[in-house]
Design a protein that fits this description.
The complex is a heterodimer. Helix content of chain A is 32%, strand content 29%. The N and C termini of chain B lie far apart (48 Å). By secondary structure, chain B is mainly alpha-helical. Classes of the chains: A alpha/beta, B mainly alpha.
């Protein structure tokens, strides 16, 4: 079972408000293997981000277990965790004096000393991340001068520099045009295959996800299920994803179409 | 140092007893407030945060007010309360409490402006408490408090300066340990945590460092405006980096220089007048902030 990268059993997620637990999803069980690109799909407000944030240890789970590389989530020290899992979400304020190189080099923090001094190995990892994301020419630029697509790549580069076997991304394709969406997803795919990373991201890009991902976690009617893209198309789940909606999923075209 | 013996003696006196402690105070005040401002701006990720704006100086003032005016109310413990180092402790505690309150509330409201307004409200609350205290205080104590409130870099003996230096150094040392956390906090707490930072610990260190610095400076030199806000901005403009292991020493340097310049101006060359230091820092600091705002449309963080 060593190829088990992420093992989730009977997980219950939601928010704790005082003594009250607001449950968003329960009975979640699945396991993800190494080197796979996995997308989490579902309508707005179904708990995609909550699930991702819980897996990424950004918010506490209500019950159940999450094992990363056969170790329970809660048994990691903060620094060990930072060497296992990196986390990307772009909905954050970025200080404008921060340059691309500085932002990417923050990814080396789990490995640097108390003064945050970069060693040669750190510089090599940063350069590698910049090369992979095609940012080498932009590295001296300030982050507030970049376009959305470039900024997205900078954040992914930071996660690559952190050099972790697992990467979680919260909606990495929002605000991007089709070209940049495809580019970002291709980059993620390449990271999975060439560096044997496990990458999980939440997305509204169902059609693109079906084309590029190895596995898809669907959230519909309060149930989380893991499918292969082909398997997901075969089931009728994609039509149940958006209830009472004006679209339906066409299996032969692999597309969402307006209902006549 | 030429001239007759008596002239030389009086020069000695001026230099060693008055001018040198004053310059050292200026250096400590400028660099310390600059660092406190830098820590606040990064922790709150708010370009307008600073010890004065967030009400830390008011918290420190309350501590000092309790010492000066409260001592005469409670009586019996005047010896303890009239010592300058007890001012420093009370002021540090005062700013620590205010900062903690602001931080707790800031976790609930994510809005930049709301946090600043909360800071202002805390400043009003402490001002209210001080008014009540001054209503009951004796005339001498009230006068002493008002003079302290003007802010002054002079008036410190070498003995007091040692206390100042002790508190200041511990504040700076605590801030140095937070450099790495400060770097990652620029991307927000979620990112900082994901990069292996113990947020609770680093937040505590940052608050501790800030309140030590802000408290001791306010206790010994009075509430000094604008320096804590303006210095970090000037430094970012000049050094064009956001790496705190460069920013922090740079703020120390620049803060000292600016405060020494302010001090020199306040001496009014070729005159016996000494202007209140707060007037000078406001006259220099406020235009700096306005210029930055106008030039960049929005203030850079």
């Amino acid at each position: 079972m060593s190829s088990n990268s992420i093992e989730v059993k009977n997980l219950k997620i939601g928010y704790i408000q005082g003594k009250k637990h607001e449950v968003i999803l329960k009975n979640i069980s699945f396991h993800l293997t190494k080197g796979n690109l996995v997308s989490i799909i579902g309508a707005n407000g179904t708990g995609k981000s909550t699930l991702l944030r819980t897996l990424a240890h950004q918010q506490p789970k209500l019950s159940g277990t999450v094992e990363i590389e056969n170790t329970l989530l809660e048994n990691f020290s903060i620094n060990q965790w930072a060497k296992q899992v990196s986390w990307v979400h772009t909905e954050t304020i970025i200080p404008s004096s921060l340059s691309v190189y500085e932002l990417v080099s923050l990814g080396r923090q789990p490995y640097t000393n108390w003064l945050d001094k970069l060693k040669t190995t750190d510089s090599i990892e940063i350069e590698k991340a910049l090369q992979l994301t095609d940012l080498a020419d932009l590295k001296q630029k300030k982050c507030n001068t970049l376009s959305d697509g470039q900024l997205q790549r900078v954040f992914i580069a930071r996660a690559i520099a952190q050099n972790t076997p697992i990467i979680f991304l919260d909606e990495p394709t929002t605000h991007l045009d089709l070209h940049h969406k495809v580019e970002t997803l291709t980059l993620l795919k390449r990271l999975c295959k060439e560096y044997n990373k496990t990458i999980v991201f939440s997305s509204h890009e169902i059609e693109l996800s079906l084309q590029v991902c190895d596995q898809v976690l669907s959230i519909s009617q309060k149930k989380v299920a893991l499918h292969t893209p082909k398997g997901l198309i075969e089931t009728n789940l994609l039509n149940e994803l958006f209830q009472d909606s004006k679209v339906h999923f066409d299996k032969t075209l692999g597309k969402f179409l307006f209902k006549e | 140092m030429i001239g007759t013996n008596s002239v030389k003696q009086s020069w000695d006196q001026i230099l060693w007893v008055y001018r040198l402690p004053k310059s050292i105070t200026a250096i400590l005040v400028g660099s310390g407030l600059g660092v406190a401002g830098l820590l606040m701006q990064t922790l709150f990720r708010n370009p307008l945060a600073g010890p004065y704006v967030l009400g830390l100086s008011s918290g420190a003032s309350l501590g000092v007010a309790l010492c000066i005016m409260g001592a005469s109310l409670f009586g019996g413990m005047e010896f303890i309360f009239s010592q300058k180092w007890s001012y420093a402790i009370a002021a540090s505690l005062g700013s620590f409490v205010v900062l903690l309150c602001v931080l707790l509330l800031a976790a609930r409201v994510k809005d930049h402006m709301a946090i600043l307004i909360i800071g202002l409200m805390f400043a009003s609350i402490t001002a209210g408490v001080v008014s009540v205290l001054s209503f009951f205080a004796s005339a001498e104590a009230l006068q002493q408090y008002i003079f302290w409130g003007f802010g002054s870099l002079g008036n410190l003996s070498w003995h007091e300066l040692y206390w100042f230096l002790g508190f200041y150094t511990s504040g700076i040392l605590v801030s140095l340990t937070a450099i790495k956390a400060l770097n990652s906090l620029q991307l927000g707490e979620a990112y900082a945590r994901s990069m292996g930072q113990n947020i609770q610990k680093s937040r505590f260190l940052i608050i501790l460092g800030t309140s030590l610095l802000c408290g001791v400076i306010t206790a010994f030199a009075g509430p000094i405006a604008f320096i804590g806000l303006a210095i970090p901005h000037l430094t970012r403009q000049l050094f064009k980096t956001s790496d705190h292991k460069i920013l922090l020493p740079a703020v120390l340097l620049l803060g000292s220089i600016v405060m020494l310049i302010c001090d020199t101006i306040s001496q009014l060359p070729s005159s016996e007048l000494i202007l209140p230091i707060n007037a000078i820092t406001a006259l220099i600091g406020a235009p700096v902030i306005i210029t930055l705002l106008v030039r960049n449309r929005k203030i850079v963080f």
